[in-house]
TrEMBL record:
Recorded family membership: Belongs to the XseA family.
Record gene name: xseA
Chief localisation class: cytoplasm
Subcellular localization(s) per the UniProt record: Cytoplasm
Pfam families registered for this protein in UniProt: Exonuc_VII_L, tRNA_anti_2
Record's protein name: Exodeoxyribonuclease 7 large subunit
Any one GO biological process: DNA catabolic process
Assigned keywords, A-Z: Cytoplasm, Exonuclease, Hydrolase, Nuclease
Keyword Hydrolase among record annotations: yes
PANTHER family in the cross-refs: EXODEOXYRIBONUCLEASE 7 LARGE SUBUNIT
EC number: 3.1.11.6
Domain OB-fold nucleic acid binding span(s) in chain numbering: 8-115
Length: 478
């Protein structure tokens, strides 16, 4: 083969560059694609990534191209993250404005010039709305009335006082520390018992771990007054776990009131909608609990105040009535005395004495009524404390009885196992046959002339098979 005309690779690349420049010069395109292999050079403020398109019915990639964003494009991506709360990172679907670029050394790529914020927000909102619709359609304990979601959980009645709380939160979470600090250092001196159930509270792929912790709370058997879910702030994508269908369903059905303090300010998650009460931050969740307890205390104080006021009013009214009666009697007595001075002298003295006696007895009755009314709240609280102590005693009795029953079952199983152990079987006159060091119960594996071991409870006989005879097994039939 003779010499052929050739060109350098750089020359070919230059021709390709010229052709693409001529074809796409000044043109831009809005492209829908997924982001993969993303990296960010903070010192240069440049994003590197791949734009991919997946098949309509599968996750197989049907198109892929290298992309980058710098300068104004990088600034638009920063604005996108601020406006949506969604990081520009892998596995998000975006609508971006791009131009075509070809470099002789780095090849074909797309420059991202702008990004449509509303497109991404729309996708996230569509997914969220689809999950909410599925929750309502598939579960009879979730109902939508106008813009409100009625669930089994948010229809539960909060106890008058919240004291024992289970907290689902990330380990060493600043939000959890804020929640605990707010509860433990409240201005009213309320004391709380806080049980921590640490888990991972971000990333939709951690939903199973989150659910297992929620189940642990239910299986603990502890009579919690409330369950609190807390999380500090973060990117919008960090909160996707709280829009998970299974978590939303579990929260809606949970038999203990759930209070959420998830630190996202921009919107409300599905978990918030399904829960009994949602607040914006862990601190707000703690403040809600304190305010709830304070409301109960104020209602008791107000009741006490009203009782005292009503008692005073009742006493004053009767006292005024008695004073008026006394005045009437006195005036009448004077008139009678004037008319019958001599005859009514004794009656006048009796009337005065009787009036004093009546006033004294009425006063004593009113004082007794006042004491009885004032002491009624203490009797109610005493009865409630007795009820709680009885409940605790019953739980301890049931637990001890259950442990004793289980111990009896274990003893029975232990005795049964001992009875069928090889040691006891050998002591009853049975033997173990071993061929070539292996235990066998099949005579077909043993031939005449083979050497076998016969193992008794305390002796091993090594013997040679001289004869094989079929055995009908009648002697061992029971």
């Amino acid at each position: 083969m003779g010499p052929q005309k050739h060109i350098k690779l750089s020359e070919l690349n230059a021709k390709i560059s010229d052709a693409l420049t001529d074809r796409f010069k000044g043109q831009t395109f809005w492209v829908v694609a997924d982001i993969t292999n993303h990296s960010y050079k903070a010192d240069k403020k440049i994003h590197y990534f791949e734009l991919v398109e997946k098949g309509a019915t599968s996750n197989s990639i049907v198109a892929k191209i290298i992309g980058k964003a710098w300068g104004a494009g990088s600034m638009h991506l920063s604005d996108f993250e601020k406006n949506t709360g969604q990081s520009f990172t892998n596995n998000i679907n975006v609508l971006v404005l791009v131009s075509v670029d070809y470099h002789p050394l780095f090849g074909l790529s797309l420059n991202v010039l702008d990004i449509d914020t509303n497109f991404t927000l729309g996708i996230l909102e569509q997914q969220r709305n689809a999950t909410l619709k599925r929750l309502v359609d598939e579960n009879d304990f979730i109902e939508k009335k106008q813009e409100q979601y009625i669930t089994f959980n948010n229809q539960l009645q909060l106890r008058a006082v919240i004291q024992r709380v289970a907290v689902l939160s990330g380990s060493n979470s600043a939000g959890h520390e804020d929640f605990r600090h707010t509860l433990e250092h409240n201005d009213f001196g309320y004391v709380f018992q806080i049980d921590d159930y640490p888990t991972i509270v971000q990333g939709d792929n951690n939903a199973k771990l989150f659910l297992s912790k929620l189940i642990d709370i239910y299986k603990s058997g502890i009579l919690y007054d409330a369950v609190v879910i807390t999380r500090g702030g973060g990117a919008q994508s960090d909160f996707l776990i709280f829009d998970n269908y299974n978590i939303g369903r579990a929260v809606a059905k949970f038999p203990i009131p759930i209070i959420t303090g998830i630190g996202h300010q921009k919107n409300v998650s599905i978990t918030d909608l399904m829960a009994h009460t949602h607040t914006k931050t862990p601190t707000k969740a703690a403040e809600f609990i304190i305010a709830h307890n304070r409301s109960f205390e104020q209602s008791i104080l107000l009741l006490q105040k009203n009782i005292v006021i009503k008692s005073q009013q009742l006493f004053l009214l009767n006292y005024q009535n008695l004073s008026g009666l006394k005045s009437t009697i006195s005036n009448s007595a004077r008139e009678l005395i004037s008319a019958h001075k001599d005859a009514l002298g004794a009656i006048n003295q009796n009337t005065i004495n009787s009036s004093k006696t009546i006033l004294y007895h009425k006063h004593r009755q009113l004082v007794n009524i006042s004491h009885q009314i004032a002491g009624r709240p203490r009797i109610i609280l005493y009865n409630r404390i007795n009820d709680i102590e009885n409940t605790i005693s019953n739980l301890k009795t049931f637990t001890n009885q259950y442990l004793r029953n289980q111990g009896t079952y274990l003893g029975h199983y232990r005795a049964s196992i001992r009875m069928i152990s090889p040691e006891n079987i050998l002591k009853k006159g049975y033997a173990i046959i071993r061929v070539n060091g292996k235990i066998t119960s099949n005579a077909d594996t043993i031939d005449i002339g083979d050497t076998i071991d016969v193992v008794f409870s305390d002796t091993i006989l090594k013997t040679t098979v001289r004869e094989k005879t079929k055995y009908n097994g009648r002697e061992t039939h029971l």
